[in-house]
Amino acid sequence: MAQREHEHTLNVWFADELRKRGLNAKAEVIHAGNRRIDVEARIGPVVVAVEAEHGQSAAKKSEAIRDADNRLTQNLAQCAVAVCYPDDTTRESLSDARLIWTVRSGVDDIADWVDGGIDQLASVIRLAPAQLGDPDAAAASLSAVLDEAVNKLSAEQKQLMARALDLPPSKPGRANRSNGGRWDKAAKRALLVIATAVMFHSRLDSHLHALRPEYDNRIQGGDTPFTGKWPPQMARVCSRAADPVAAFLDAWDLILALDYKPIFETATAALLSCPTDIAFSHALRETANAALEVAQNIASMRHDLLGRIFHTVLDTARYDGSFYTTTAAATLLATLAITEDICDWNDPDAIADLRITDPACGTGTLLMAAAERIHDLAPQARDDGDVARALIEQVFSGYDVNLTATHMAATTLGLLSPTTRFQNMKIGRAFLGVDEQGDAYLGSLEFLDQQPKMMAWPNAAQPVSQIDSGDRMSSADPADLVIMNPPFTRDSLRHDQFSKEHEKKIKAREKTLFANKPVHLSSNGNAFLILADFIRKMDRGAIAAILPLVTATNASAHEIRQFLGRNYHVETIVTSHDPQRIYFSENTSIGEMLLICRKWDDANGGKPPTTVINLAVNPDTPAMAYTVAYAIQNDTAQSSEYGTVQHVPAREIAEGNWGAVQFLSEHLVKNFTLP
Asked: Of 80-89, 128-137, 187-196, 436-445, where does mean pLDDT reach its minimum?
């Protein structure tokens, strides 16, 4: 009988396997008091404790959970994973072994055991920090401070700040009868721009000593030697200064000599927007201190926080249909869309050649999920500065009609690599509205026209094109993947933020731009599918989208279903039949679906069936979303009891019959699905 391996030995081998997959992992790490972590993985500043047992009995599971929870209560780690090796694990079998694990972030967590291989577990460990903390509480706390800061401002100051960033007032109503009240929301957004700049400033503080610029980026041409003092004052020092406005202006002016225009130029415009007085200084100090408190909390610096905060203060979702994608849904969509075979993930040049576009990027949640997926497939890229720069400057493009949202997106992407400069960042503000000449424009949908009007980043709140150069963004890069959660709202509310005259012109522009296209103008969500088809690469390319579930069933969407079914392989459709969460966006209650379509080469033969997954439980953390995605990709979603799976023939999909999304029960799907 073979000798049973000692658990300590298995932990050493397991840490070695994790290192092969790009994780910073060490086995048997001893801490003060002789307290030991079986395997310690560091994800940035977050420590993940992996507590393992040799065996998968109920008793072994309980021991692993107990040890994992102890590491949390002992403050040795911010997150923990309880793992059980199979009884017969050897050095040779470990890399292919079927492990079981459950992620722990608190002693009250319900144990949700998952089985899988080391590749899958390594990805789960990498994503585990994303479920730490309470981003809703952090967003609500910062939002409350911003409300208090707004209340300190005069009506004139609110208007000046909002107008400097081209932010419109709220529509008149009972809650804002006074003229000053109409500008409260806009002023709050302006303060949010300042808060995010303070957060990013604090992230840069530990790097700035080594980043003294050779040339002064503030001076046109970029070839003037930098001669100023360096480094800039730290964010916390600025917040405590007698005149915090002047302190932040001086610091951000120096940082702009290095670069980071998308973040600090707009925030500077907000600070310069109105005369400084005691009230404005107090409002800024409160805003900065709250932002620094958020930045100190590593759990709160997860990439969805800025999106949560933004949508906490956003008041136009019901008019422009801008819905915030949950981080779990973003992880699920990106994992299904970005597959191992679309790129040589060991080749940095191949990664840099990828093009991933979100034409309705909002605060950048989907682009960040795409970045995490790339890091998962190419773990060596996480610590490769050249790859990080390529992701920010070459791979990702994002456009949105909301100026503040694009500011958040730039900041969010910047958090990927705070030392990366943004000369070539492809984040654009797309103009939605009617200009001074009376011409209507439809945001990034204008890419469908030959002469689109795009606005990249505001130079002191004035529309320019590219972030640094000022070149007009007249076309989007042909994309390997278009990933998006396009705006959706019913026709009676759509564009309701505009005057009746402007709304009429905008809808007339829609009719012109989408003439003879399979778009029903009762909403604008389907229009973005036509845009995605337009900007994807001609010979290949994929579309990954979050759409209202009615897109799969309504008669008004029949033509777009046929269009996709005939021109693409509709690879995967995911719906949620979870009674608690039938949606994948945070600030909505309508049913939604995830859709992945890929351009199909007929030379490869007939299209495979479409896989329709109707989830029984909608994953609520990125780690769980990855586990579900892995099960879908390996055709084990149904056996793992995540939901039911149907395989719909390509012929039915091309005819527009997507009715398999309607029921969780296979029996109902087969017997009662409507054509």
From this structure: 128-137
pLDDT, residue 259, reads: 83
**Within-domain flag for 126:** yes
Bridge partners (DSSP) of residue 433 are 441
Entry pTM: 0.85
- For residues 581 and 621, the answer to whether their CB atoms sit within 8 Å is no
Q: What is the separation of C-alpha 301 from the centre of its chain, rounded to a whole number of angstroms?
A: 13
Same domain, 126 and 139: no
Q: Are residues 404 and 268 in the same domain?
A: no
Q: Is residue 593 part of a domain?
A: yes
**Whether 74 and 139 share a structural domain:** no
Question: What pLDDT, on the 0 to 100 scale, is given for residue 472?
Answer: 54
Q: Which residues pair with 434 in a beta bridge?
A: 440
Same domain, 373 and 447: yes
| Count of beta carbons in the 10 Å neighbourhood of residue 499 | 10
| Whether residue 66 sits in one domain with residue 39 | yes
Beta bridge partners of 615: 576, 643
Tokens of 38: 């079986």
Same domain, 547 and 408: yes
Decide if 402 contacts 363 (C-beta within 8 A). no
Cα(142)–Cα(501) distance, integer angstroms: 37
Nearest-angstrom CA–CA distance, 259 and 393 = 13
Strands (E), 349-431: 356-358, 396-400, 426-430
CATH number at residue 46: 3.40.1350
Distance, CA of 631 to CA of 115 (rounded, Å) = 10
**More confident of the two residues 203 and 576:** 576
**Gap between the Cα atoms of 53 and 4, Å rounded:** 13
Beta strand pairing call for 481-484 and 432-434: unpaired
Number of domains in the chain: 3
CA distance 386 to 499: 47
Question: Of 273, 301, 329, which residue sits at a domain end?
Answer: 301
CA dist 325 and 429 (Å) reads 19
How far is residue 96's CA from residue 89's CA, in Å, rounded to a whole number? Answer: 10
Is 2 within a domain? Answer: no
The residue among 149, 245, 150 whose CA lies nearest residue 197 is: 245
Q: Which domain holds residue 227?
A: 135-301
SS3 413: helix
Q: How far apart are CA 72 and CA 77, in angstroms?
A: 5
356 shares its domain with 486: yes
Confidence of residue 127 (pLDDT cuts 50, 70, 90): confident
